[in-house]
Design goal:
- By secondary structure, the chain is an alpha+beta fold.
- Among the domains are: 2-78; 96-219 and 506-597, Roll (Dipeptide-binding Protein, domain 3), CATH 3.10.105; 285-405, Alpha-Beta Complex (Dipeptide-binding Protein, domain 1), CATH 3.90.76.10.
- The chain has 20 helices and 21 strands.
- The strands form 5 sheets. Strands 1, 2, 3, 4, 9, 16, 17, 18, 19, 20 and 21 form an 11-stranded mixed sheet that branches. The protein has a 4-stranded antiparallel sheet with strand order 12-13-15-14, covered by helices on one side.
- Helix 1 runs antiparallel to helix 3 (42-66), helix 1 runs parallel beside helix 4 and helix 17 runs antiparallel to helix 20.
- The radius of gyration is 33 Å and the shape is globular.
- The two termini are 39 Å apart.
């Protein structure tokens, strides 16, 4: 304590002497006085100069006795300036961890980003790789810092990319919360004016990209290998996978397709992954479905009526729509499935897909009971649905797995595993499940009871299950696989040369999510939007795409191309980019400035 008291007294004395010597624009005062006193006479001027010089000498002596800090204070006071606080030293950046799931493509991207962040920002990042189920659970639980992520559109409206980031969404792995964003999404969902809802979504995306709980990297393309033996399969631009409902193979043999990792479930309301959705879409059908041209067409509902205000939809179900056990598909099967998805006890991550139905969001939040859902069975074959707001693309939603029907009596017998066993899975789609062997294969055969079975080839499907790209490529080369959607990136040129490489654009975005809420072991810096923007700027997207060899497009916003805006143009084109200049060196310079600004060192 004593040295500090002594120093304070010294500084006070110095300040007093400074005031006595005329401090406060000292140099200016001295100059003006010197000029004035010279005109008045040398005697007066000399006396004043002697007084000033004496005070200055005392000031210097006192400052010397007090030490460097007092000298600084005296100098500042003599200059008539306010003493500034000493700038805090810049801190070292903490090390971070980035997680990704097993895939050579994801690994190459993670390693490239790791190197970029190290070189440009001096940031140490460790990589952690795990198989799909473990990775997904870790990410869903928020037990991470930065995680690989990807999203494919469920329907062709920007909402499919934006409402997943509202505060209570089951897909919001970043745990990001922004009331203004939530309000804009609510406006977009409730407005009947296309211009109002699209502007609300543009404004919402702007907030998302300013705070960057997610870091877009590129817009997806789907790359796959095809040996040429399978005809008439359909590449789904939304799912980014294949549909084989109309497919045939030379000689009538089974189609062998590389699905990827083992789906956690084939339960339409519980599935949360693309691999599961692909399988489910062969086993079930909703009120609407897709044809071989990827167009929305009638499914279980042969027709529907829409009220003038767009709020009430009445679906008329086919008389010949039945389950694989021969029982009819009824309106109540849909009502049960939708209520089940919304019941908080179910824990459906895609429950928000039903939020367009009246009271659905409140039911899922536990504010209302499931009996308050805006659905009614007029009779067994007539389903009336009341929406929260006019939703022109509702028939796209009714073709999505979460809204598929399931039978209450079937689920009740084995709620946790009914959908993963051929003995208990009762479905209503073009195929029926005949085998489900974890980490090996899923086998499906034609469902002869399907209402359109007579018009479909019903080729047997064998979906091979592995998340090992090298194994998939080996199986493709030996003929065990006809189509493989994942293989080592370094094999791209060879596959192109062999004429077996295919690429198509899809509506989706590859990105990194950042856990933005305080969690034990997570550095506080992750909560800072400026740091997250620095991470986004310090990714050379062109190089990432070159490494991945996937012909993707760099992403500087979240919603990809392919979504119509209110004026008929493209939503992404109209919205433009939200960060990045197109010049990587300039972007890195901005990233470094941001990190310095928040108090950390960069190279």
């Amino acid at each position: 304590m004593f040295p500090n008291l002594f120093l304070n007294e010294c500084v006070q004395s110095v300040n007093m002497l400074s005031r006595l010597s005329g401090a406060g624009a000292f140099g200016k005062q001295l100059s003006s006085r010197h000029h004035r006193h010279r005109t008045q006479g040398g005697s007066t001027m000399n006396k004043r100069l002697i007084t000033i010089m004496s005070l200055l000498l005392a000031l210097v002596l006192m400052a010397t006795a007090c030490g460097g800090q007092a000298t600084t204070a005296a100098t500042t006071a003599a200059a008539g300036e306010t003493t500034a606080a000493t700038t805090a030293p810049l801190k070292d950046l903490p090390s971070l961890k980035l997680i990704y799931n097993t895939s050579t493509g994801h690994q190459l991207i993670a390693e490239a980003v790791q190197a970029m962040w190290k070189e440009s920002l001096g940031l140490d990042v460790t990589l952690e790789n795990s198989e799909w189920a473990v990775f997904q659970e870790t990410r869903n639980n928020g037990d991470y810092q930065i995680a690989r992520h990807g999203w494919l559109g469920d329907y062709t409206d920007p909402m499919t990319f934006l409402d997943m980031w509202v505060s209570e969404s089951g897909q919001n792995d970043a745990d990001w919360k922004n009331p203004e964003f939530d309000a804009l999404i609510a406006t977009a969902k409730s407005s009947n004016d296309p211009a109002v809802r699209m502007q609300a979504m543009h404004d919402a995306e702007k907030i998302l990209m300013e705070e960057l709980p997610i870091i877009p990297v590129y817009y997806y393309t789907n790359v796959w290998l095809d040996n040429g033996k399978v005809k008439n399969y359909v590449h789904d631009a939304l799912l980014g996978h294949m549909m084989f409902t109309w497919a045939t193979k030379d000689g009538g043999e089974p189609i062998n397709y590389h699905l990827g990792a083992t789906p956690a479930t084939l339960d339409p309301q519980l599935n949360n992954a693309t691999d599961g959705a692909v399988t489910i879409q062969h086993l079930f059908v909703g009120l609407t479905t897709k044809n071989e041209k990827n167009e929305i067409v009638p499914g279980v509902a042969e027709k529907w009526d829409i009220s003038e205000d767009g709020l009430t939809w009445t679906f008329h179900l086919r008389d010949d729509a039945v389950w694989t056990d021969g029982k009819p598909v009824t309106a109540n099967d849909f009502i049960y499935a939708w209520k089940r998805a919304l019941d908080p006890a179910t824990g459906s991550e895609y429950a928000y897909q039903v939020y367009y139905v009246k009271n659905a969001a409140k039911i899922n939040a536990g504010e209302l009971g499931v009996e308050e859902l805006g659905v009614k069975a007029i009779d067994d074959k007539t389903l009336e649905v009341t929406l929260e707001a006019a939703t022109p693309y509702f028939t796209q939603l009714t073709a999505f797995p979460t809204l598929y029907p399931v039978r209450e009596d079937v689920v009740a017998k084995n709620p946790d595993a009914w959908a993963n066993d051929p003995k208990t899975l009762i479905s209503n789609g073009p195929y029926k499940l005949t085998k489900f062997e974890i980490k090996n294969e899923i086998v499906m055969e034609k469902n002869d009871k399907y209402f359109d079975a007579a018009n479909l080839p019903g080729t047997k499907l064998i979906f091979k299950l592995t998340d090992d790209d090298a194994s998939a490529l080996s199986a493709f080369k030996t003929g065990e696989l006809d189509i493989a959607e994942s293989f080592p990136a370094e094999e791209t040129d060879a596959m192109k040369a062999a004429g077996q490489y295919n690429v198509e654009p899809i509506i989706g975005t590859y990105f990194f999510s950042v856990e933005v809420q305080p969690r034990e072991g997570n550095p506080e810096i992750l909560q800072d939007p400026k740091f997250r923007k620095a991470l986004a700027l310090a990714i050379d997207r062109d190089y990432v795409i070159e490494v991945a060899q996937n012909n993707a497009l760099p992403a500087y916003a979240f919603v990809p191309n392919g979504m119509a805006d209110a004026d008929g143009g493209d939503f992404r084109e109209n919205g433009g980019n939200y960060f990045g200049s197109g010049d990587y060196a300039a972007d890195v310079a901005e990233a470094k400035a941001l990190i310095n600004e928040i108090g950390y060192k960069v190279p």
